[in-house]
Amino acid sequence: MTAPQDRPNLSALDRDTCLKLISPGGVGRVAYDDGEGPTVTPVNYVMDGETVVFRTSLAGRLNQNLAGLPTGAEVRIAFEVDRFHPDTHEGWSVLLRGGGRQLEDDETSADVEPWPAEARPARIRLTPKLITGRRLGRG
What fold is seen in the domain 8-137? Predict the structure, then answer.
């Protein structure tokens, strides 16, 4: 086992650093209550300012939860993105919490092209109320 002084340190990241780290987009995980309890689903995403935009299928549970709400209503969701190097045990993790809602067809936003071949026409936007992050590193 490595001595504590040889292991990376854990430190908090400020909001601006968190947004900078996730700004290129990529893959994150959205967490929500799907009606049967908490669930986590990986999605590819883009940033639109300080909001996250991703797509899902019309039949997806998150979209179904949102479809039953009035236009513009939100559900509480969390969104997490991380990058870690398995050999050095260094990296970072960013967590956003806030309201997710369906984007209407006439709303413009940054667009994300879904990775799966199956249609993902439902666009979801997360407007974070809380952004936190941690870095594991040396120095």
Answer: Pnp Oxidase; Chain A (2.30.110)
